[in-house]
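tool_call: predict_structure(chain=1)
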Amino acid sequence: MPHASRNEHAACGVGFIASRTGEACHQILRDALQALRCVEHRGGCAADQVSSDGAGVMADIPFELLGHRPGEIAVASLFMPQDPGRLRRALALFESIFAFFDLDVLAYREVPADPTVLGDDARRTLPSLRQAILRRPAHCRTDASFDKLLYNAKQVLRTKLEEQGITDEFFFASLSARTIVYKALTRAADLDRFYPDLLDPSFITRFALIHRRFSTNTRTSWDKAQPFRLLAHNGEINTIAGNRSRAISREMSIGLKADQLVTHGSISDSGSLNEIAEALLYRSSIPHVEDILAIMLPPAEAEAPFYTFWSRAMEPWDGPAFLVYADGGTVGARLDRNGFRPARWAITDDRFYLASEAGAFPLDEAAVRRKGILHAGTGVKVDLATGRVHFRDPGRSREHRDAAFDPRTTPIGSVPDPAPPEGPVSVFRKTLFTCSREELEKVLYPMVATGKEAIGSMGDTARPNVFSSEPRPFFDYFYQHFAQVTNPPLDYLREGNITDLRVFLGRSPNIFFPKDLIPLSEALELPRPILDLGQMRFLERMQSYRPSESHIIPRTFPMRFRRDDGVAGFHAAVARLAADVLEAVKGGTSVIILSDREASVEQPPIPGLIALRAVVHTLNESGQRLNASIVMHTAEARTSHHLAALISFGASAVCPYLALEIARRDEHPTFGALSADRREQNLVAALESGLLKIMAKCGISVVQSYMSAKLFTAVGLGPELMETFFPQRTSPIGGIGYEDLAGDILRKTGLAAQAGFMDRLLHTHQFRESPHPGQGEHHGMTSARARLLHRLVALDPDTPEARDLYQDYLASLKLDEPINPRHLLALRPDAAPLPLEAVEPVSAILQRFGAGAMSFGAVSAESQRDLILAMEASGGRSNSGEGGENPFYWTDGITASTKQVASARFGVTAEYLISGEELQIKVAQGAKPGEGGQLMRVKVDESIARARFSLPGVDLISPPPLHDIYSIEDLKELIYELRQVHPAAKISVKLVSGTGIGTIAVGVAKAGADIIYVAGGDGGTGAATLGSMKHAGLPWEFGLVEAQGALLENGLRDQVELRVDGGLLTGKDLVTAAILGAEGFEFGKLLLVAEGCVMARICEKNTCPAGIATHDPKFKARYTGSPEAIQHMLIHLAEDARRHLAALGVASLGDLQDRVDLLQVAPDHAAFVHDRKLNLGSLLDPRPPRTGGGPSASASEGVGPLNQRILAEAEAFLEVGGTHHQTHTITTQDRGVLATLAGAVAKRVRERRRRGEDPTVPGTLHLDFTGSAGQGFAAFLTDGLAVRLQGEANDSVAKSMSGGRVVLLPHPRSTYAAEENAILGNGALYGATGGTLLVRGRAGDRFAVRNSGASAVVEGTGHHACEYMTRGAVAILGPVLSNAGAGMTGGCLYLRRTHAERVNQDYLTALPWRPEEEAEFRGLLEQHHAETGSATAAALLEDWPATLQAFSAFVPVAVAAGLKAS
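tool_result:
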């Protein structure tokens, strides 16, 4: 079977139904298949739109259907080769291996199947489907022992099959004495058509578990469909790289052959999760799946000794994970610590239901006893024999209550320096480790002074390390990975309670060795993986302990080699270091310290990453990796990027001693009166925050899961270094080898003697070009080039002077090349040149241009206005950014053609959306992927606050994740919802160039996007940490090529338009990008320069000398930009591109697609490419041929049927206003309901506003619904709409609501207590700016996240309620879980005082009752009672003095301080 790469991710709809009576029946299976159909929209399909990414069901074995009795047999459901010869060999091996285990095959059953229901892709890869009936051996007296024997036989068979080369063609869909799986690459509605067994009334079961898959790799395989043998998974495992790495170390430690514990090659994240869960169930001493999943997915803030104990042996498998499982005796589910996936349940007297969406299963509302939501870090288990339902935490279960779970850890101590050195750290020492003056001034000193990472702007314009001739750290070859679409980054700022930086030093117990657990070996516990100087001295002192004093005796190994030994000596020193460490570990040393403290010019340091990887590889290969922790004691690590690289590549802890010594000993004016201790603490705090940020970019919250994850891409390292030290990591253009690296080390360290003699630090100008030409790093856009362009755009482009100036501009760029990978390429004509008039006109090229997303806030209203007007006049696109509408919209109707929808949802309303021609979902930004936008408080004046529905004078830092996109099917849903509100708009998705973007682009295309942006890592920004700008996104060339290739390979390229941005400066850039796949081009920095930007790189400070990136009137007065200047710049680019097209003999940019034959290695840089050992094959190799394909099903999804009906019935209301009523039944398949109506209302409001009329909606339309509403109910709601839903709703209710009212009540047939049951999903009111939401029931997690003006009352909520709320009022009348109000900067939260400990005290404080808050709270309760009949509200209103005693008004700390001061 064809297989996808290890990068494959998937997201899905899952659930199960279980009998509570112990009775099996066929109706349970029928209800499960109906639920599967209801979550079809969560699944994905291949390009043929019939072959799906997978649909499946797990149930009890249908013994009656198979003609056997329970307890006599097991069933192996097999996917096998279709080729007769390979099939015979596979079956022969299967029978012989299983016979060895006394597992005889009684019969084979050809599984009845109807291939005619399959799509072309699924039919082409259809395996041979058989069920093997296996006799139960007499010695297997229990089902559990039988299943364990089956597992052992399967694993041995796997090895034998691999030896025969039949691995991917032979797969156990299920193998059990109790359960069976039917799965296929069909749509949900076709599963029982494909498998007639599922329609047979004799197929009876006590439970049924369902799964519908959405893979980001279109051409998935049958084996990757779910359920797997034990579980099914909705979401992503963000930590999968680290989990797999640790699993392989355990496998080697046990002495198993490769793939015996976890598959090393092609497997999805869910597949690896299932394998380890199976291994723990059958190989370890943990007998219950419930406990296994609790250990693998522990809750945050888990204080029970159970979790601390097991955390020594198993790192978390975290991510957006909703797991359902069944082992034949129990069926259950578990949610990860973040709670990103929806999991709704309902209980009746005879059934338990759980699914990704409420309303998926058909059930009688009158029979429902309770309804709820699984919250983060919780689970549920149903005992199939007794029907009992347990919502317990295994860490606190009855079975474990009296057990002693001793983790045997000792907190690390600290030893003061008995004789601290005086004076600053020497220039010699700093230079030896390539610490430059710029690094000190821009990176280290700001961290020391503030405890935070330094902020910069305008992005990274410097060359990558492999192109550079400046002395730079080895870490600069590496770029951080980041999450986008398939798994979300995390908000480490506001959800810090989810994070865990604890590490253990010492031997790691192997969870598969019971003797390793009883007792655990002792370990040192660190609060973070960063050792300060005192803690390092403590470790060093432990080296002198005797075995009788400590079980842990660290040992230090120097990282250095002799200069006189040259390159060969470097190689030998690395090998000797690894061998010495291995010998020590075999001798019992459990903490290894790799130190460069003794390095010098004559004994240069071995780069820490090289030493670390050599040691890790050697320990792994010898099965010793778990027996020791590695501490890096290095001067080379000074930033969070350096620390993250070391930890991700295998270090347990790092002591960045040089940086810490600089913090303590150097002096700087910004340090003021800070003590040495405080300065060191500040640096550690900044590094800790930076490390969390880098982990969070990947969606990882626990550092143990980040260790050894190797989540970096190398740019500039060749195969020799990659295969030796960084196997299975990516290095897209090859690069230097061992010899080059050694030579570079000798050269760089040789500078130290000279620097020390001259007492002059290195100054490499990494963050800004040198004012002196020829000195320091080369940069793309510079101040000098900006000044040249200012002269250029002031002239008519048709004048000779302007044309000459443009050539001067090109010549100045040429002097500094190569700066980007594209500069290594030259255009190669393949035909006779065309006359210029035969090439497409400037106007046609201008239509392909767009202004980058620069928000009102990042730039001034006038600057953004001129960008909009210039692009409109040019026929191109403008982009609002994520700052809401420009003030000129309200006065002159000026608005961007592209409206951005980003994580903070600033200003996103129905009117904002319908005023655009294109709606852009910003998943990531090139300069800071995995992070949210930043607008510093100094720039947030009254006008900015008004546009963003915030308060002035506060930092506006957008959340890293979009809180309605936690996986690929969520993106599909948001695209669908945007199509509902604005059916005529094109939908684009902005991604960032990075490893794996091809896989992601395939998923985005399948999700229904019209346009995919590939942003380069060198794109601009108004504010970002310097480390993010420098070390995250890759050049757009790599991402564009990968996305283009993946879309072509999967037959999806013709369904989407590809656009690119990031440092585009010339017509040759555009032509090269077009050849590599781009059809559209975006410009940011270049257009700002055309407006007058001087590249001062201080956008974040509100002191822009050109008056562009500022709102200070003093600086704004300096603004001289104009739309005409921007147009002139664009015309020059278009004309430049035309000249290149003419020279190539190609008539248009569109004709360049995939014409890589028109590219060659640039002759000017051929020697450079040779010397750096670069391989440009990834850019120059021919592309896969295009295959046909019409629009995908999701892309062609228009307005939903219910929305169409509502809109048709609302015609009179829309035309004349007045009071109107509608009544509808709604189901979970009705998604985004009311968005289309809201868009129509907003369109008319806008039309009235543009005509100068009163924009107020003239009347009210009352809409009553009954049933289970699908996702996005009442999204984008506007004034004039009064909505009432009796039943329940799923996620994202009333998100981006700007007006109107939504009332949610239990179903009219319900009998449960409304106030005690959950009827609302997660993320309600996300980004709302107005209106009211009243809920007589409880809600899920992140209720009112990013609320910016709505009012709401709810009976109870989950975690993170009112997160990053900036305006509005929310009353929670009942229970609330942790972290309420985190990040709140405005608005008011009314909460019971008994729940005050659930409030994030860093952000909120209780306010004494004032008349304003009392009146607001009472008004909310009165409205809630009047609309919902809430018993809670009635009781609270009845005794108002007691209510005021019981409740408090919580407001942001800064707001409370301001009120107190006034």
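agent: The chain has 46 helices and 50 strands. Proceeding to next step.
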